[in-house]
């Protein structure tokens, strides 16, 4: 939050004192208005109402459920891929053994 430097109060009062009585009252009202607006602008802003919070939580929970479901599907797909890779590795091992045996027989 920005902080405003405070004006020289003595100088301000001296300048107001040389004005006519009507101008002094007007100056004090204007200064009071500026101070009031400054204080009003620093007030805490109200937060969202309960219905908005509940709706946000509902949407968040729904998004988390959808994310969980998609992650479960990805895990299942990865498990199927891992099983396929195991099968391919097993076939490559058996074919490698056959090649080694045939090379031993020809040697």
Structure description:
This protein is mainly alpha-helical. Helix content is 81%, strand content 0%. The protein is rod-shaped, with a radius of gyration of 40 Å. It starts with 8 loop residues before the first helix and ends with a helix.
Task: Describe what is shown at a glance.
The protein has helices spanning 9-17, 21-41, 50-106.
**In DSSP terms, counting alpha (H) and pi (I) runs of 4 or more, how many helices?**
3
Low-confidence stretches: none
The averaged pLDDT comes out at 89
Order of helices and strands: HHH
Euclidean distance between termini CA atoms: 86 Å
* Rg over alpha carbons: 40 Å
Q: What oligomeric state do the depicted chains represent?
A: single chain
Name the shape in a single word: rod-shaped
Helix content: over 70%
The overall strand count is 0
Major sheet attributes = none
What is the SS-derived class?
Answer: mainly alpha
Q: Strand content of the residues, in percent? A: under 5%
Question: How do the helices and strands line up, and which of them pair or pack?
Answer:
Elements: H1 9-17, H2 21-41, H3 50-106
List the defining traits of the structure above.
107 residues, mainly alpha
């Amino acid at each position: 939050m920005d902080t405003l430097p405070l004006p020289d109060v003595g100088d301000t009062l001296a300048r107001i004192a040389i004005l006519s009585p009507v101008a002094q009252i007007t100056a004090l009202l204007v200064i009071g208005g500026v101070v009031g607006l400054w204080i009003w602008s620093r007030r805490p802003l109200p937060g969202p109402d309960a219905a908005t919070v509940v709706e946000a939580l509902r949407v968040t929970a729904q998004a988390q459920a959808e994310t969980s479901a998609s992650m479960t599907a990805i895990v299942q797909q990865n498990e199927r891929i891992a099983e396929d890779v195991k099968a391919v590795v097993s076939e490559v091992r058996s074919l490698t053994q056959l090649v080694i045996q045939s090379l031993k027989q020809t040697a």
